[in-house]
Amino acid sequence: MLNVSPAGAAVAGQRPRGHLRAVGTEPSQHGIEVQLTVNGTPHQLELDTRTTLLDLLREHLHLTGTKKGCDHGQCGACTILLDGRRVLSCLSLAASHDGADITTIEGLSREEQLHPMQRAFIDHDGFQCGYCTPGQICSAIGMLQEWKAGWPSMVTMEGTEHHPHLDIADLRERMAGNLCRCSAYPNIRDAILDVARHSA
Predict the structure, then answer these.
(1) Does pLDDT of 25 surpass 80?
(2) What pLDDT, on a 0 to 100 scale, did the predictor assign at position 113?
(3) Residue by residue, what is the 3-state secondary structure of 7-61?
(4) Does Iron appear among the keywords (predicted)?
């Protein structure tokens, strides 16, 4: 089931990434050992090979900030940062990411200081019910990193003139995978653009 070891840090440093060891003592024949760093804390876990990152975070590590929305990769509520890149945790098997560094909404703040994106969402009232907000924030952080690195979007690939600042059409395209049932999009947009302007 679950074996979270504080000593996992030393073990994690000794074992090469990508090495998985089947757990023979598991009642299920699908048991496997996975080592992950989540929000800066190393964890060594024995999991069913079919466990998604979303279920690992919520059910095993009790980090419930990452939300289970559609569980089909269509709403973006489960978005996390995996080795710095945004991914849908409901579609990602934990066993495929042995040794990975994961950041969830709980791990964005530092020494009780909110991440600039979290602060911007509050300042611009970028949420209503708040269910999609963790995924929106994690996706926005990953999206800005992609934009700064020059990754294209459908908007930029269509020959739109490059802007020194993230424009609204490009932002909408890049964040299209994150849905908000409350339709708080104008405020979400303003929050992301505010962070983009101050970090350019």
Answers:
(1) no
(2) 95
(3) CHHHHHHHCCCCCCEECCCCCCCCEEEEEEEECCEEEEEEEECCCEHHHHHHHHC
(4) yes
